[in-house]
Known about the structure:
- The protein has strands spanning 2-5, 11-12, 18-26, 30-38, 41-49, 58-59, 66-68, 77-84, 87-89.
- It is mostly beta strands and 96 residues long.
- A hairpin with a 2-residue loop joins β8 and β9.
- The radius of gyration is 12 Å and the shape is globular.
- The mean pLDDT is 90.
Amino acid sequence: xxxxxxxxxxxxxxVLDGLITTITFLRxxxxxxxxxxxxxxxxxxxxxxxxxxxxxxxVDESMKLAMVASNLEKDTTLHFEVWxxxxxxNPEDWLK
Length: 96
C-alpha cells in the first residue's frame, strides 16, 4: 500500500463502487475500511475517523466513507491498498 499525504478531516471517497465488508481497527493503521469491488478486487483505506458507512452497505464513488484522522505522532496520511486475486496491486493505478 501507499501513504498519501492528506489534511486531517478531509473526506475520503471509494475508488470504485462496492460493498463495505470490514470496518475495524488495526494497530499502525488506525480505523480501516475494506471494500469488495467484485471479481476478487478489494480496496483498503486506513487512518480514518468519523466513519460514515456501515458493514454490508453498498457504496458508490460519490459517497463519503470517512475523514482522514488527525495524527499527532506523525504526518497526517491516508493509507491506501488494493488487492486483486489475493495479491497486492499497485494502488497508484487506481487513483484518479
